[in-house]
Here is the input.
Amino acid sequence: MFLRDIWYFAVPGERLKAGDMLHKTLLGEPVVLGRDAAGAVFALRDICPHRGVPLSAGKLYSDKTSGCGHATLECPYHGWKFRTDGVCADIPSLVPGQDMDVERIRVRSYPVREIQGNIWIYMADERRADAPPAHEPPVLPHFDGARPGLRETMIFDCHIDHAVIGLMDPAHGPFVHRSWWWRSTASIHEKAKDFAPNPRGFTMVAHKPSSNSGAYKILGGAPVTEISFQLPGIRIESIQAGKHRVCGLTSVTPLDEKRTEITQTFYWTLPFLSVLKPVARQFIRAFLKQDGDMVNLQQQGLKFEPGLMLINDSDIQAKWYHRLKNEWARAGEEGTPFVNPIEPVTLRWRS
Ligand code: FES
Ligand SMILES: [Fe+2]
Here is the structure.
């Protein structure tokens, strides 16, 4: 199943203009995401509590035009109106004397945050749907208030676990990403990387990128990179090259059991990267597609539910991912604090 009581990347901020609504299935649940005229983002369960019609198919009114002083969504079937916090504001069919406390009718509302151009949604456990989030979404270091320079999204036809493990897997690079601009099989060599726990995951501590990771070379300087992973499927790579910085956010969000959305977002301070954007976009697409094609191919075998192996040390990050998930789920079930089970360690592998 999917982890609860945690923030997932929902949608790029630029996808929602003021007055927009969009439907999205997240963790198998129908969600309407929207932005009111004042710019505030909201997320509600996309099911009208009256008779089930998706609210995203209706209209979004601003506080000025709704007639009740709040931004509201109007269901297209019988016109019930809901505030963006999910509280029912109006049932048009009621006549005077039909006393009904419409405010007692609510659509589930999900906490949302917009940070650095990314919209995050907090997917609480059903039993804690009304409780405020217990923590805040990830913030990318050194890019306070920045807007993304480049973004690509792709859907993998697999469960989130295979997408996350596929993306963090260090041993597939020379095979899946074999290309003149990234890796060749001949460049495989032994690597040793230091890892340390972080609040909801683990960090490959700052190091010089491998000599066979070609794309780093264009940054100039002597690049140093730090890569952190945190639940539920967030990878942040922070690169420093001379006085400049590049940050990559990889967010993995389950749409449902069989479809997972990967969004790759980049921020940078190097002016020349903006010029390279069209080219960079092609590379990022190609790179993501190589990963996506492989997990899609993997589905052919997984259909038969074979046993799978995780070996040392190249699959230890995958083992950690499972341990972190289990611990998160346990903490949620028992209502006790999450305790990160990972210890600092050096991992070695050839890639
Ligand atoms: S189904 Fe939404 S108002 Fe009736
Ligand atoms: Fe990959």
Q: What stands out?
A: The first strand starts at residue 6 and ends at 12. The CA atoms of residues 207 and 274 lie 25 Å apart. The chain has two domains: 6-128, 150-350.
